[in-house]
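User: Fold this; tokens only.

Assistant: Input:
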Amino acid sequence: MSKYEPLWQHISDQTSESLTMTFDDASTILGFEIDHSLLTYKKELVGYGWSVVKISLKSKTIIFNRS
């Protein structure tokens, strides 16, 4: 199981077509601070029917879209 599995599960439970999440929100769901490994693990999200569209370091947000 991936360390990002709780986040992917949370996202897959959403009913919207798009989701914007702050780094803090993601960290709360995961129980740890997100780090650069998100760039490697984000490809797992495709298996849940979602994808990472944008990671903004400036605004500390992540935008997800349903595939």
